[in-house]
Design a protein that fits this description.
This protein is α/β, with parallel strands linked by helices. The protein contains five helices and nine strands, in the order βαββαβαβββββαα.
């Protein structure tokens, strides 16, 4: 397949998902949407990654409204689609959900539980029933009409499915060096940067294995 990776900044790329796509014998094409230009054509599956911006900042980011219209077209066409963090929020918004600032920010390792529906889902069943997810977000969303919630934390929805589209609020793709870049860019989000990075490094290898497993499940479903 030709897999399109939609990115929203230089530090929020496909991470270990790139390895999973390559190992499965597919082609990965990156589209840095914030730089402008049209989306590459011919994508058999699309993965929309995160970004430092928020999903309702249309006036601040002129590319956001066109991206939402493009995502609406993918949803209408039934193109296999996976949103990650901001990407999940944008997929939800394109499907008619409300996006808003969460009652609590989730930054770091957050306990997440699958819902009962996840056991029958070809993508979400790759996740453990309970796990600590690496997160970095301040916004969340309602469930789009017709969507099924697949995982949640104490604070908000963590995974959902709508037809051939999935969204995950956490960051299964992230590499250690990406986390370090995020800490450098948003130091106020973590109370102790050195401790935060050290704790991340003790857990990131297992997290990367889970991330690749989740990506492989999406590719197989696509």
């Amino acid at each position: 397949m030709r897999v399109l990776a939609v990115t929203h900044g230089p530090t929020v790329g496909p991470g270990v998902f790139a390895d999973a796509v390559e190992d499965a014998g597919h082609e990965l094409v990156e589209w840095p949407v914030e730089l402008g230009g049209r989306a590459p054509e011919g994508g058999d599956a699309v993965i929309v990654f995160g970004g430092a911006m928020h999903p309702d900042e249309d006036e601040r980011h002129g590319w956001l409204a066109p991206e939402l219209r493009w995502l609406e077209g993918l949803l209408d066409a039934g193109t296999p689609l996976l949103g990650v963090c901001l990407g999940s929020q944008l997929v939800a918004r394109a499907a008619g959900a409300e996006v808003f600032r969460s009652s609590e920010s989730e930054v770091g390792w957050i306990p997440v539980e699958r819902t009962a529906a996840a056991a029958q889902d070809p993508v979400a069943r790759a996740l453990p029933e309970q796990f600590d997810a690496f997160e970095w977000h301040h916004y969340t969303h309602t469930l789009p009409t017709g969507a099924v919630e697949l995982a949640r934390s104490r604070v908000c929805t963590q995974a959902f499915r709508l037809g051939n589209a999935w969204g995950v609020q956490f960051h299964p793709e992230v590499r250690a060096e990406q986390v370090e870049a995020w800490v450098g860019g948003d130091p106020a989000d973590v109370p102790d940067a050195e401790e935060f990075i050290a704790a991340m490094r003790t857990r990131i290898a297992d997290w990367n294995e889970l991330g690749q497993r989740l990506c492989r499940a999406f590719l197989a479903a696509a």
